[in-house]
Amino acid sequence: MKTLVRKIIIAVIGLAIAGFFLYAGIGELTHIRVPIDGVMGAIVTAASGYALFRNGRTFLQCVTALRRGPRTAYAVVAQYEEIEHHTTNNDEDEDGDEEDGPLVSVTTRYHFRLNDGEEVVFEHLPREAMRDPVLRRAVRRYGTHVIMRWYERPQVWESLELDPLTASRETVVDTTSRAFHRLPRVDKETLVGRDPARFKPLTYATVVAVIGIIAGTLALDGALSPFGFQGVLKQTNLGLAPIGIALWILVHMVVKGRILRRIGADEEIPEDQMRGILADNRNFHLYSIGVPLLAGIIIAGGALFGLAYGPRTVAAQYQGLETHTETDDDGDSSDYADFIFTKDDGSTVTVTCDWSDKDAASRIIGEPHRPILLTYWPGGGIDVLDHVAPDPSRQ
Questions:
Q1: 386 phi and psi, to 5 degrees?
Q2: Distance between CA 257 and CA 202 in Å, rounded?
Q3: How many domains are contained in the chain?
Q4: How far apart are alpha carbons 309 and 234 in whole angstroms?
Q5: How far is 359 from 228, CA to CA, in rounded Å?
Q6: Can you give the pTM of this predicted structure?
Q7: Residue in 156, 88, 164 with CA at minimum distance from that of residue 120
Q8: What are the DSSP E strand ranges found in the chain?
Q9: Which of 253, 268, 303 is the last residue of a domain?
Q10: Are 53 and 28 part of one and the same domain?
Q11: Contact at 8 Å (CB) between 86 and 150?
Q12: Is residue 286 part of a domain?
């Protein structure tokens, strides 16, 4: 049950994050100011919609499983297998076949045959079973009788124990048997299952970090000024959350790697297996970084370019104020104020802000038709007002 509850909590967090980015993506599509906004909005909307679907499906499956309760059955271990995953290697052996590269990870599979003939396959054991060396070895031997309790959709363990009517703990495991002459390889999930308590603080820290990143992003959006450096930073705000999550994934990778290394030392795992386990952990996290990092760069790309480009000061003359209205697909309209400036070469600069910020911008700019030095942030395709100063050379 604890596993299902954790899955539900993670799904709820995923739904909140996906909904946040879906709203941001739709906002990009309905307020297109430069062409790249449409591409960014479409990608973010599609990715967020897919994440919303996956997390919603997981949430419904877990809630349904809790309502139905776990299934209990008597079973026999039909097969235990280990599948080694190697990197590709271009070298060939004497027969001309390609040789396997270094070991990356090992996947374990436990096949249980129920009394009615049905076969159930798991890739890992319950945490309690992983901490019990007698039970852990017993379920790797063909013919061991067990009592299983599990949820079917999603397939999650509730408990696993030896059948007391067919075997005793003293006779199930024969440590001199040829079947246990060599301890099987250990994969990352198996190592995590041996001491799950060490990973709980990291799990709690991850939940707090994700919630803190999202809450901090929303709070920052309300605190930032719409002008100057803060105004450009405000435009990157929706992209800061996924970038922050990507950075946290890096922290999670390092911390989890250290915990795995300590457990491996306590369990006396061979060094070659530990290298594979740590590589598996590293690859999983690096692949996971891609989605939030790409989403953050896409959402905040233009504004980040504006920060890199920096402010620009030009001699100009304020001409006047115009307004324009943008309407989204739902019929909701947003009003914007466009402040028009003419430069010495005859070209124009249009600084745009929300209509609610019009009065504040007007106080910064001053009266029309006077020579000024206009400082603004031109990067990212949207000009952001910084400040205005008198032009002493033209006063």
A1: -105, -70
A2: 11
A3: 4
A4: 16
A5: 16
A6: 0.49
A7: 156
A8: 71-86, 103-114, 119-122, 145-151, 156-162, 312-327, 333-343, 348-354, 371-377, 384-390
A9: 303
A10: yes
A11: no
A12: yes
| pLDDT tens for each residue of 61-102 | 889 988 888 889 999 999 988 877 766 665 555 555 556 666
Q: Do 205 and 261 fall into the same domain?
A: yes
Domain match, 30 and 113 both: no
Q: Which two tokens stand for residue 370?
A: 């006077």
Cis peptide before 226 (omega within 30 of 0): no
Tokens representing residue 206 in the block: 């991850």
Q: Is there a contact between 148 and 120 (Cβ–Cβ < 8 Å)?
A: yes
Q: Is residue 395 part of a domain?
A: no
75 and 161 housed in the same domain: yes
Which whole-number Å values give the CA distances from 185 to 25, 177, 221, 273, 274, in the listed order?
45, 17, 50, 7, 10
The answer to whether the CB of 321 falls within 8 A of the CB of 365 is no
State the maximum Cα–Cα separation within the chain, in Å, rounded to a whole number: 101
78 touches 142 (CB < 8 A): yes
| Domain stop point among 183, 202, 237 | 183
Structural contact between residues 109 and 121, judged by C-beta atoms closer than 8 angstroms: yes
Q: Is residue 319 part of a domain?
A: yes
Pick 383 or 56 by higher pLDDT. Answer: 56
**193 and 289 together in one domain:** yes
Tokens (6 digits) for 160 = 């696993």
What range does the domain containing 53 cover? 1-69
pLDDT at 321: 87
DSSP state of 356: G
* CA–CA gap between residue 180 and residue 187 (Å, rounded): 17
**Residues 186, 273: Cα–Cα separation, whole Å:** 7
Helix, strand, coil shares of the chain, percent, nearest 5, are 50, 25, 25
Q: Is residue 140 part of a domain?
A: yes
Report residue 130 as tokens.
């992983």
Distance, in Å, from the CA atom of 57 to the CA atom of 66, rounded to the nearest integer, reads 14
Contacts of 178 (CB under 8 A, 6+ apart): none
Residues 179 and 196 in one domain: no
Per-residue pLDDT reduced to its tens digit, 352-391 = 888 888 888 888 888 888 888 888 888 655 688 888 888 7
How many whole angstroms separate alpha carbon 319 and alpha carbon 362?
12
